[in-house]
UniProtKB/TrEMBL annotation:
This is Class I SAM-dependent methyltransferase. InterPro entries: Methyltransf_25, SAM-dependent_MTases_sf. It comes from Nonomuraea longicatena. It holds the Pfam family Methyltransf_25. The keyword ATP-binding does not apply. The keyword Transferase applies.
Amino acid sequence: MLTHEAARGWLDRWDRQQEGYLPDREERFTALIDAVEALGRPDPLVLDLGCGPGSLSVRLLERLPRASVVSIDADPLLLALGRAAYPQLTFADLDLREPGWAEGLGLERPADAAVSTTALHWIPKSGLPALYKQVHDVLRPGGLLLNGDHLQTEDVTPTLARLERVLHDRETERMFTAGRPEDWRSWWEAVDADPDLAPYRKQRSDDHTGEESLLLSSHALALREAGFAEVGTLWQHGHKRLLCAVKEGSGRTETSVS
């Protein structure tokens, strides 16, 4: 049985290793939640896509305690840790790559926002249109898709894209040489060595292989094709961006920017 204390210990380590790659992680979380709050509803319904252990979801509830957050992921280990550490969250074991995942949520009303951080680049480029169409269809008019991720522009601005990666790599190197020895791989190796986590680890397949959708243009095009009225960047630090897409509301004129 995975205890609350054990799960919180693992997730404290998870947050520390994530911050090694994303020193501005909390700043990005804050910007994303600011955008959800700006929708003006004190009790928004929010979908956290590829939520992992619920790091973003729990911060959303801390800021917006009347919100309803549905945290969606397919990794049994991360879901088990999240459920044990954050009993206040509602987790849904669904694969975003599978058709019909949105219907599996059984939502009673359209969502106000769908959010994600450092997850959707694992969806292959070929799968982005279907994913974003399902997101579009479950959002209310004027609802938001907010995706914080590493999104590159090497197809349109190759020199800037290279410089963005250099800045990111230098920043990451400084973080890990300044007292953050556990990286992403080390965290998973430690998980593998813990017998209490073995039942969940055995169920896990390594999904971090194959094609990744790393280009900003791929996501922007798929969002437009899905029917979103506006697409643009709300926040940026190098190639780390908070991409926002707005579902057209009543009386709005469709526009798009990238």
